[in-house]
Amino acid sequence: MSNVLDELYSIILSRLKDKPEGSYTASLLEKGKPYIARKVGEEAIEVIVASTSEGKERLVSETCDLLYHLLVLLAVEGIPLEEVYGELRRRMK
Ligand SMILES: N=c1c2ncn([C@@H]3O[C@H](COP(=O)(O)OP(=O)(O)OP(=O)(O)O)[C@@H](O)[C@H]3O)c2ncn1[C@@H]1O[C@H](COP(=O)(O)O)[C@@H](O)[C@H]1O
Question: What is the three-state SS of the chain?
Fold first, then answer.
């Protein structure tokens, strides 16, 4: 069964492959892996700031930005989402 993260990951993979005009994902690929990794860090900081002062709606929005950029990083690294799910399951007590 597919969930929203799987669906988004699949769209990201197709953007990285087809590089359509106007795709933000494709523009990230052009900027390179260190840039994408930095974006993950920036978005994580925005999550921290939102959690301390900006309210729940903002926290949800920044969480989405963080998850999206994390998925792009995993996709660029060639790590299937199933591998992350598997590791999370392995850790579950
Ligand atoms: N879920 C997202 C998503 N979340 C966040 N973002 C983008 O991430 C950026 C975060 O904002 P920032 O201010 O930090 O960055 P910025 O100044 O816009 O960009 P930078 O120059 O800093 O990289 C915004 O441009 C958002 O549009 C996303 N961009 C795309 N998606 C989804 O990814 C899929 C593919 O999108 P495209 O590649 O654009 O077709 C689609 O399903 C989209 O809905």
Answer: CCCHHHHHHHHHHHHHHHCCCCCHHHHHHHHCHHHHHHHHHHHHHHHHHHHHHHCHHHHHHHHHHHHHHHHHHHHHHCCCHHHHHHHHHHHCC
Query: Would you state the pLDDT for residue 2?
Result: 64
pLDDT digits 0-9 by tens, 1-50 = 569 999 999 999 999 999 999 999 999 999 999 999 999 999 999 999 99
Nearest C-alpha to atom 15 of ligand 1 is from which residue?
39
Q: Which of 19, 68, 72, 73 to mutate to test the pocket of ligand 1 (most atoms within 8 A of CB)?
A: 68
Q: Does domain 4-91 have CATH number 1.10.287.1080?
A: yes
